[in-house]
Design goal:
Helix 1 packs antiparallel against helix 2 (31-47) and helix 2 (31-47) packs antiparallel against helix 7. This protein has five domains: 2-54 and 268-287, no CATH class; 96-263, no CATH class; 328-423, no CATH class; 442-525, no CATH class; 537-678, no CATH class. The strands form eleven sheets. Strands 2-3-5-4-6 form a five-stranded mixed beta sheet. A five-stranded mixed beta sheet has the order 25-31-32-28-29. It is flat. Helix content is 28%, strand content 16%.
Length: 679
Amino acid sequence: MDWLYYLLEANLYLLIFYGFYRLFLQNETFYNSNRYYLLLSSATAFILPVLQLGFLKPTPIVDNLIFPAPIVYEGASSSSISASSAVVENFNFMDYLYPIYLGIVLCFAFKLALSLSKIIKIWLKAKKAKTGNVTLIELKDQTTAFSFFNLLFIHPHLAEKETVLHHEMVHIKQKHSLDILFFEVLQIICWFNPIIYFIKKDIKLLHEYIADELSTNSGLHKHEYAMFLIENSFGVTPTPLTNQIFNQSILKRRINMLNKKRTAGWARLRLLMALPLVGAMLCASTMAFTKDYGYVDLLPEKSKTVAPIQETPVVKKDQVKFPPPVVMLDSKDKFYVRYGKDEKTGKTVIREKRYILINGKAVKDLTTFYGVYDADNVKYFAKKDAIAKYGVIAQYGAVEITGKDIKYFNQMTLQPPPPVQDRIKFPPPMAKLGKTYFYPIRHVDKGGEIKYSDRRYIVINGKKVEDLDTFFGVTNATKIVSLNGPEARKKYGSDANYGAVEISGNNLKYVKSITDGPPPPKMDQIKFPPPIVKPDRKNLKRPPAVEPPPPGYRPKQDQIKFPPPVVMPDNQTSFHPRNAYRQDGEKYIPVEIDKRYIVINGEAVNDKSKFYGVSNTESITFLSAIQAMKVYGNENGKNGAVEIKGANIKYIEELAPPPPKQDQIKFPPPIVKPNPKKH
């Protein structure tokens, strides 16, 4: 019901602001200032409820609900409250209040849409002419004029047409239509508040005051202008969403204000009186209302630190005694209301807000309901589940109590102290089904140091493990699911290029040290997939011989020619990236991606984690780091490059045989730069 309390509080402030306007500002001639006051005060009325001054509202004292003072239970002989006094039928008007409010809101919204459609209908059918940013629209059926945003509706043969145009242009330039639309929307939201209707009327009246004042200041005599309004205002029906020059209902007040003496400039200082009014309402919002929608704390209370009464003695580990865990006694046949201490009186009071039902009927008065016993079953619902089942009335949770012989406590009965440790019976341990532990991949290097090499995307109960350096594994898991690279990328995106591990369980235990769990394998115990057979180097195309430069020749940097790149033999029609793999059962999982710049028919391979190789190629060219940087730039070619060409290249969609080891690939020796000093 927070939405209802918020609306009521905002409309209360709106009433106060409008009362201030009627008392001090309504009859003054500073029309623009009054206009802005009505706009800003109306918006402020809906902002104030969400603001708080924390220092005016001290932090409440919270009772110890875990170990409350025991009170003797009322036995079966105690008098019980009759079920009829605490329980009513399930029908509650508050359940239907929100649909009723929403239905009326939709009706007012439909009315606004209908008014807009009438203006659009006239605009579509009428003859139009453009004058600057303003569109003139001819009215044939009505001898009147009105404006809506940049649309000016006017009869072509209207008397004193120039005066009318000047009047309506004031409305257009000052964007008075925005004001009208703002209060129309406000009326839709607060349809139950009659003050909105008065504010709408006053804002339109201020618009006409402003336009009348500027029209007469342009040289037109006030008496002639008043007579012109009187002659043309009878028999004209005003349009709700527009500023209309001829309006019989407000004609008398407009003429009176035309002839009224101008208010002195110092009278504008009355507007400053609204500032302490806002401060008073902000204090009232903090202190007088108990609410959950005060989201913004402007001046929070400073936290107070309490000095310890005495120094904590040092005790040995075996001397420390912890209190036994709290166990709800007979939670299936007893229910106790929530309680706490009142800040002012110090007395124990009921603070129960949950939606409580007994045999399908809601408890009407929680102030006289203290709990039940001898129930067959007591079922608790969290906030989310309660709202889904019962609606917003159960926003604090719900309790369902069922039983044929339910008895009621006739006074507030606090929960008893927890039982002795040896009386608590814990459920038997769950039998392990399959793998219930997980440790990240790690190995022992040649120096005997344990190092991590796991780069998978690890998720525990739906949350990603952010810091893998301090994550050493978990035990007591209910379920562990491993996803390969394509499956993990499809589910978690590019962050899961190396695969993913999903771990779930309600009683997970985190491994606290890298030495816990099974010992990691040594480097020589890790099995890598077999290498690819070395290609036949005899059929490699050798670069043509280069004639030596003439004596005394000193080449520039850009004139140095490198030998042509190595081209794979004609019988080499496939290419596999140089990745490092880890064996997981029958699968190989990449743990290091080929860093070379791979180009296929002129286009670079962007995501090499999804690239397993190609076949049916026509040529494969390997470029060294120096050659690759010259062709593709320093950043792309710093690790070398591979150029693959072919008209019918086929992409390998799954992991191919593992690549060769680094020491099996022979690159051509680098060319030494000529020394310019020797030439």
